[in-house]
């Protein structure tokens, strides 16, 4: 099980906040995780929730991409997750292809209240699999807190994820539901694949 290792390591090595950036140098593994999906499904907000435990009500479309980092500890190893949040808008599609390069896993996000975003998840998956060597990923139905507006059923999500060979999660960037679990699952899965290939 992955756990947040930043504070542990800072304490044990006597490092303060200022040195967080240098944590990257201590990492035993560095992985690139890309977050893709239609505009406004909550990609940036999920990342914000995971890396800063915050929620943003206002929709500010991502321009190009933004990268966040979080270090997790798995079986004593420090693993640096470099999370690339890619703009969902079509006008950024040319830049987007560059971001698939070297990705270790994908997080495909759709909005449970938006059927089109669910249907388009298949296109995002095809885009990822044709541009990347990795086959790791998760499919996320986000905004599970908006119960009354929900359109996509859990079983639809599960079936689609099965087709992709991905694990399915339903999350809320607003309440934080399942957000840690998504990243923890991915980090553990990548770690295990490396251990098994040794
Ligand atoms: P692009 O940058 O255009 O690709 O969009 P995005 O997928 O990054 O969407 P973003 O994270 O900016 O979120 C869009 C809107 O949805 C914002 O107003 C968020 O506050 C809202 N939102 C995101 N996640 C949730 C959630 O889990 N629940 C609710 N209720 N609102 C959410």
Topology:
Blueprint: E1 3-4, H1 6-13, H2 23-26, E2 29-37, H3 43-52, E3 65-74, E4 77-86, H4 93-100, E5 105-111, H5 115-119, H6 121-131, E6 137-142, H7 154-164, E7 167-170, H8 179-197
Parallel strand pairs: 2-4, 2-5, 5-6, 6-7
Antiparallel strand pairs: 1-3, 3-4
The chain binds guanosine-5'-triphosphate.
Large-scale geometry? globular
Quick one: how many beta strands?
Answer: 7
Beta-strand percentage? 15-25%
Work out the radius of gyration.
16 Å
Spatial gap, N to C terminus: 20 Å
Which ligands accompany this protein? guanosine-5'-triphosphate
Structural class: alpha/beta
Mean pLDDT across all residues, rounded? 85
What's the main sheet like? Answer: 7 strands, mixed
Secondary-structure element pattern, one letter each: EHHEHEEHEHHEHEH
Number of helices: 8
Instruction: Please list the strands of the largest sheet in the order they lie side by side.
Output: 1-3-4-2-5-6-7
Q: Percentage of helical residues? A: 25-40%
Uncertain segments? 1-18
Describe the structure.
The structure is a single chain. A seven-stranded mixed sheet has the order 1-3-4-2-5-6-7, with helices on both faces. The chain has 198 residues and is α/β, with parallel strands linked by helices. It has eight helices and seven strands; from the N terminus they run E-H-H-E-H-E-E-H-E-H-H-E-H-E-H. The model is unreliable at 1-18 (pLDDT under 50). 38% of the residues lie in helices and 24% in strands. The longest helix is centred in the C-terminal third of the chain and has 19 residues, at 179-197. The chain starts with a strand and ends with a helix. The protein binds guanosine-5'-triphosphate.
